[in-house]
Write a structure and sequence with these properties.
Helix content of chain A is 33%, strand content 27%. Chain A is α+β, with helices and mostly antiparallel strands and 426 residues long. A 6-stranded mixed sheet of chain A has the order 6-7-8-3-9-10, with helices on both faces. A 5-stranded antiparallel sheet of chain A has the order 13-12-11-14-21. Chain A has a 4-stranded antiparallel sheet with strand order 2-1-4-5, with helices on one face. Classes of the chains: A alpha+beta (426), B mainly alpha (277). Chains A and B meet through α2 and α4 of A and α7 and α8 of B.
Chain lengths: 426, 277
C-alpha cells in the first residue's frame, strides 16, 4: 500500500499534442480516487502513466515515496484491471490468477493458498479449472480482479472495468469493487466515463478536461460546489440547467422570471452584463405542491411544458426557453464536449411524481434560489462558489472513509478469527 | 439454402474435387502398374504390382531414392525450424515495435519472395563451388531460407497483429519481463500461427526442384525432387514412369500426414475469451 503523487505530469505525443497537460494530483494511502471525464480527456493515459505502460514526457510520478518515472511496469508493483480484462486465454482461471505469483517464483502451496483465498472472495471457486473463453462477462471480470488482488500490490488501477457489462451486472460489480476496496484498504485509481460510478465509488473524484484537471473533490463537493461550467454540466443526471441571466442588483433576470439571490453572493457578480445561471433539475418543483413556508425561499414562474416523463418515483418536465446567441453557442460547445446530444435550449426540471402538470399546457413552477450557481459565460468560472463549504464537504468525506476502512477491516479480521475458531474446534 | 442450390453446390464441389484429385489418382494407379502394363490403355492396372515400390526401396533405384529421401527430410526440417524461429522474432518486432524501416523490411521480404529463383541459381552455383558449400546440406538450407523466410514473416506478423496488445501489457504489469511476456503469453497464443507457417515453409522447401538439381551433384545432398528427375529405366528403351510414380506417391505421404497432424492446431480462434468479444 502506498500513496501516489503526481507532480506536473505532462504527456505529449509525437505530434506535440498534449494528452495530459500539467497534472498534479496527490492520492492518499488507501484512498479511492476516480479519474473521470468525457472521451479524449486523457484519463486513461494518466492511468497508464501511473502503471508505466506509457512514458512520461515531463513531471514526476512518485509511488510510496519513490520516484518511478523510469521504472518498468513490473518494478512498480501495481496491479491493473483492463477494460477488456486481458485474460490469458490459454490458461485456466486458476493459472490466470496465479500468473503474477508464478512470475514472482512463489512456492506452490503458497500460490494455492492465495489463489484459493482470492477466489473465495470473488466467488470463483467453482470455475477455477475452466478457461476464460467459457466464462460469462461478469465471471471474466471477476477473474481479472482476482489476478489483481492475489498479490500484495501497492495500488489497484482500474481502466473502465465495468463498461463491457450490462447495466444490472454493472451495479452488482460496482458494490463488489467498493466492498473489496474497503476491505483491503488499498489505494485505488479508477478510470471511468460513467458519472454514476464516479459518484458512488470515489472518495475523491478528479474531473479532467482536455488533459487538464478541472476539480479534485469529494462527489458531494463536485455536485454542490462545482468550480466551473464544465464540472457543473458533467456531474449530475439529468444535467444541470443553464439559463441566460442579466444581473440587476440582487436580482437576476432570466427567461423564467427574476431570481433573487443573497447579497453576499450577488456582490461577487459585479462587472458582468450577461451571466449564466446553473440550476439543478431537483431545485425546481410544481408550485402547487410546495409547502407554504418554503415558498418565500424561492421564486415562482409560469411556463409552457413541452414534454413530461413520468418514471414512477420521479417525473421530469422539459421547458423550452429563448436564449441569446452567445449563450446558445456556449451551451452547444459544452454539450458537444460532454458527449451529450442535447442541443436545444430547454430546461429539464424534476417535479413530484404526483404532480398533475401535463404536456403542452402552461403551469406554475417554483424554484429554490438558495442553491443556484452563477457562471461567467465567457470563462465558465463559477462566480458564486463557496470554497470553504466545499472543502468542508470533502473533509467530511475523508473522515467517513477513514471510519469505513477501519470498520470493514475490523470486521474482516473478526471474521477471520471466528473462522479460525470454528476450524480449530472442528 | 434451397435444395436446388444445395445440388448445384454439390455438383460444383464434385467437379472441382475430381479436377484436383484425378492426376493424383492417376499417379497412384500408375505406380501399381508393372512396366509391361504401363500402356494398357486403361485407368486401372491389369494386375496389382509392387514392382515399382520394390525398385525404389530395394532395387536399382534405391541408391538414388533413399539417400535423397533422407536429405530432403533433414534439409527441409532444418530450414523450416530456422525459418520459423527467425520469422517469429522478426514478425513480433514488426507487429509490436515502431521502428524506422519497418515497411522497408516488409516490402523487401515481398520482393525476395517474388524474385525469380532461376536467375540467381547460376551465380549461386559458382559462389557455392568457390566457398565449398556446393553439394552440402547448408548449401541447400541457405537458399531454402531465402524462399521460406519472406512468406513466414508475412504470415506470422499477421498472426501476431491479431493478439491484443493488452495481453502483453497485462503480463508486464503482473511482473513479467518483456522476454517472459513473449514466451509465456505471446508464443502460446501465436502457436496456431507458428504451425501454419511451419507447414507452409516445409512445403515450399519440400517442393523445390531448381535449387535441388543445380546445387547438388551426388547423394550427399540431393533432395527427392531432383533425384526423381535422374531416375532411369531398366534399359535405355524403357521409360522410368512407374518408378517415378511410386516415388511421387511416397513423397506425398509426409505432406498429407503433416497436414492431418497439425490440422487441429491450425484452427484459429485460440484467442477466444482473452478479451471481451
Amino acid at each position: 500500500m502506498a500513496s501516489i503523487e503526481m507532480k506536473n505530469i505532462v504527456k505529449q505525443y509525437g505530434d506535440g499534442f498534449p494528452a495530459v497537460n500539467d497534472v498534479s494530483l496527490d492520492i492518499a494511502d488507501g484512498e479511492f480516487m476516480i479519474l473521470v471525464g468525457p472521451s479524449g480527456c486523457g484519463k486513461s493515459t494518466l492511468l497508464r502513466m501511473i502503471v508505466g505502460l506509457e512514458d512520461i514526457t515531463s513531471g514526476e510520478m512518485i509511488i510510496g515515496g519513490k520516484r518511478v518515472n523510469d521504472l518498468a511496469p513490473r518494478d512498480r508493483n501495481l496491479s491493473m484491471v483492463f477494460q477488456n480484462y486481458a485474460l490469458y486465454p490459454h490458461m485456466t482461471v486458476y493459472e490466470n490468477i496465479a500468473f503474477p505469483l508464478r512470475l514472482a517464483k512463489m512456492p506452490d502451496d503458497e500460490v494455492r493458498r492465495r489463489v484459493t483465498e482470492a477466489s473465495d472472495v470473488l466467488e470463483l471457486k467453482d470455475h477455477l479449472e475452466r478457461k476464460p473463453a467459457n466464462l460469462s462477462g461478469g465471471q471474466r471480470q471477476r477473474v481479472a480482479m482476482g489476478r489483481a488482488i492475489v498479490r500484495q500490490a501497492e495500488a489497484f488501477l482500474f481502466d473502465e472495468p465495468l463498461s463491457n457489462l450490462d447495466a444490472k451486472l454493472r451495479g452488482q460489480m460496482r458494490t463488489e469493487i467498493s466492498r473489496l476496496q474497503r476491505r483491503l484498504g488499498i489505494t485505488t485509481v479508477y478510470v471511468t466515463h460513467d458519472q454514476t460510478e464516479a459518484m458512488t465509488l470515489g472518495d475523491r473524484v478528479c474531473v479532467l478536461r482536455k488533459g487538464k484537471i478541472q476539480q479534485v473533490a469529494s462527489p458531494r463537493e463536485l455536485y454542490e460546489q462545482p468550480v466551473n461550467l464544465f464540472v457543473a454540466g458533467f456531474i449530475g443526471s439529468p444535467p444541470m440547467n443553464f439559463l441566460p441571466a442579466t444581473p440587476e442588483g440582487n436580482r437576476l433576470k432570466t427567461p423564467f422570471g427574476d431570481i433573487e439571490i443573497e447579497a453576499s453572493r450577488a456582490s461577487k457578480l459585479g462587472g458582468h452584463d450577461l451571466l449564466m445561471v446553473g440550476i439543478r433539475p431537483e431545485y425546481f418543483e410544481d408550485a402547487s405542491l410546495v409547502e407554504e413556508h418554503k415558498r418565500p425561499l424561492g421564486s415562482t414562474f409560469r411556463a409552457r411544458v413541452d414534454v413530461t416523463e413520468w418514471l414512477g418515483d420521479s417525473q421530469y418536465a422539459y421547458i423550452p426557453y429563448e436564449a441569446p446567441e452567445a449563450i446558445t453557442n456556449q451551451l452547444r460547445d459544452l454539450s458537444r464536449e460532454l458527449d451529450a446530444e442535447e442541443l436545444r435550449t430547454q430546461a429539464i426540471v424534476s417535479i413530484d411524481s404526483t404532480s398533475r402538470i401535463r404536456e403542452g399546457r402552461e403551469a406554475e413552477f417554483w424554484l429554490d434560489s438558495r442553491k443556484v450557481h452563477v457562471f461567467d459565460p465567457e470563462t465558465g468560472e463559477n462566480l458564486t462558489r463557496d470554497a470553504e463549504a466545499g472543502a468542508e464537504l470533502t473533509r467530511l468525506a475523508t473522515q467517513d472513509r477513514v471510519e469505513q476502512v477501519e470498520e470493514s477491516q475490523s470486521r474482516a479480521s473478526a471474521e477471520q478469527e471466528t473462522g479460525g475458531a470454528t476450524a480449530a474446534s472442528a | 439454402m434451397s435444395t436446388r442450390k444445395k445440388v448445384l453446390w454439390g455438383v460444383a464441389a464434385a467437379v472441382i474435387i475430381f479436377y484436383c484429385l484425378f492426376p493424383i489418382a492417376w499417379i497412384v494407379s500408375l505406380s501399381f502398374k508393372a512396366p509391361s502394363d504401363l500402356s494398357n490403355q486403361s485407368f486401372f492396372p491389369s494386375a496389382l504390382s509392387w514392382e515399382n515400390y520394390e525398385l525404389i526401396f530395394t532395387g536399382s533405384a534405391s541408391d538414388l531414392f533413399l539417400p535423397a529421401l533422407r536429405n530432403s527430410f533433414g534439409i527441409c526440417l532444418i530450414a523450416t525450424a530456422i525459418s520459423c524461429l527467425l520469422a517469429m522474432f522478426a514478425a513480433y518486432a514488426i507487429a509490436r515495435l515502431d521502428f524506422p524501416g519497418k515497411t522497408l523490411i516488409l516490402s523487401t521480404a515481398l520482393v525476395v519472395a517474388i524474385f525469380p529463383v532461376i536467375s540467381i541459381v547460376t551465380p549461386l552455383f559458382n559462389l557455392w563451388r568457390n566457398i565449398g558449400l556446393y553439394d552440402t546440406w547448408p548449401g541447400l538450407i541457405i537458399p531454402y531460407l531465402s524462399l521460406t523466410l519472406p512468406i513466414s514473416i508475412w504470415t506470422m506478423s499477421a498472426f501476431f497483429r491479431e493478439i491484443p496488445w493488452e495481453m502483453e501489457q497485462a503480463a508486464q504489469v503482473d511482473g513479467a519481463t518483456t522476454w517472459q511476456a513473449f514466451r509465456k503469453v505471446i508464443v502460446p497464443l501465436a502457436a496456431p500461427g507458428v504451425f501454419t507457417t511451419a507447414i507452409i515453409a516445409f512445403f515450399i522447401a519440400w517442393n523445390d526442384f531448381i535449387y535441388g538439381i543445380s546445387l547438388t551433384s551426388t547423394e550427399a545432398a540431393r533432395p527427392v525432387p531432383a533425384a526423381l528427375g535422374l531416375f532411369t529405366g531398366a534399359s535405355q528403351f524403357e521409360e522410368p514412369t512407374g518408378a517415378i510414380s511410386a516415388a511421387a506417391v511416397i513423397v506425398t505421404i509426409p505432406v498429407v500426414v503433416l497436414v492431418l497432424l497439425f490440422q487441429r492446431r491450425i484452427v484459429a480462434g485460440l484467442t477466444n475469451g482473452a478479451v471481451k468479444g
